[in-house]
Hints:
64% of the residues lie in helices and 1% in strands. The protein is built from 18 helices and two strands. The longest helix has 29 residues, at 4-32.
Amino acid sequence: MLNYRPLLFILGVFLSTLTAFMFIPLLFALLYGEETVGAFMIASLVTGTCASACMHQGQSENIRLNIRDMFLLTSLTWFIVSLFAAMPFTLYHGINYTDAFFETMSGITTTGSTVLSGLDTMDHSILIWRSLLQWLGGIGFIVMAVAILPFLNVGGMRLFRTESSDWSDKAVPRTQDMAKHLFYVYILLTIACGLAYHLAGMTWFQAINHAMTTLSTGGYSTSDSSMAAFSKPAHWVGTLFMAAGGLPLLMFVHSLSQKSLRIWDDAQVKGYLIFLAFVSCSLAFWLYHGHDMTAADALRLASFNVVSVVTTTGYGLTDYTSWGAVANVAFLFLMFAGSCSGSTSGGIKIFRFQIAIAIMREQLKQQFHPNGIFKERYNGRPITEDIVRSLVTFILLFMLVIVLLSVILVSTGLDPTTSFTGAVTAVTNVGPGLGPVIGPAGNFSSLPDIAKWSLAIGMLLGRLEILTVAVLFHPNFWKY
């Protein structure tokens, strides 16, 4: 039987948090005398009322969640919060609900795909709301990736299980402390990023917005030109803090407590940084010799765009699809990469590639020595059979969702390039795709409504690591 009372109560808590954050853009609307005052007042009233009703109906002396509850709550919360968070958009100058939901889901999942244009003259309240959605989605996913997904063994993430990845009564205080420390570090990094952007020439409003969407690796900007509208020093600030957003936030928490940043002790972090450096330098070399660029500009453009795509931020700086076939193929593959587990980024994640390489190495050894016993380890932990099964299942479902989504998009009349890269960028939460329609120089506004709803669901599936949602459709899930 479904344990609905704690689900309602926790959903009410999330909606009440969303209501509280709606007052921030409301204050901006009042400060600048914008027409969105009514939109945010209505949205906060409706959301707050529903939050109170959920918390009242879900009151219980003892809130206990089993595995089924956790799977259902994780998927349900993100979807329902997106439904309510879309209200200010749809109440703003008549934006239809399809576009509003697409923009909201893209924000909360930190994907960064947008259907809006005219950002340079858009109301401050709407711009800050977009940035807040990505900032909240970023910290929400970090906590989920550190505390929930390892416990549920989603996609091989049991390797990152800690004492906080447990929902027994004994572990709840540790989980709460961990979430609090992650939140504090997230705020500190956001403030540091905002200050750096301001020193690089942005106004305070621009710096605050971009700090929130950089650390969350979301990619929403206050300008239609995205980061191309700002100075070269701002590009380097963005590169640095996007890369920081792709690191496990728990690493910063441990570093502060131990007063030592021991990056090279973690195989995932080491692999991530080496990968970024290698691809950025290789592409910079290609641009320097194949295009009319100085070495400094080639390195700046290559580094920014590589980090933006690998961390699934999706900021636009230049149309890299015009760099030639080599760059196009490179960026298509980079869309799949992702950065570190426990970060704000989407994608497959670096650790899964490293585990796959370890498994391949083990299999090759077995071919040469059939009677030998080989057991690969990752970060000092054994790669067990259940981790391998979970990883293989994740990869297969990941690719299957992209194929199915591509077929749906093609059936709506979109061209193959737009359909395939649109599916990839949605599931990997990158933001822009390839081609003239949804590439770095375009947006998703011209797509048909069915394509937008499909892509929005694809964003949610990718952000929740596929398996978290897929398990809900298995008949056995509902039998106990």
